[in-house]
Amino acid sequence: MIITAICGHAIGSSFIIGHNVEKILKPFNIQNEVRHADILNVDYHNSDIFIIGKDMFRNLNKQGYPRHKFIILNSIVDEQELKSKLESLLRDKKIIN
Predict the structure, then answer these.
(1) What is the pTM of this model?
(2) What is the distance between the alpha carbons of residues 54 and 96, in angstroms, rounded to a whole number?
(3) Average pLDDT for runs of 10 along the chain of length 97
């Protein structure tokens, strides 16, 4: 599974998100790759899941974006919010129970 963390410049907050994603997925033994992208260079065809903060989401080019693949976070540092939303999406995709 490929997960893309999106932020303003792909150098800071996307790495925080990526680190937390790996911690959350580790107990499930889900093979994953976390990629990083800035809001101007997101490729909507190369990931299974996209994670972005709501502040950045407002600035994202949404033309053709796959809404069903997006997790929009109120706070990128809130691990519980990320865990809840990521696990919910993974259950919807039948990847976890």
Answers:
(1) 0.92
(2) 25
(3) 90 90 95 92 91 90 86 96 98 93
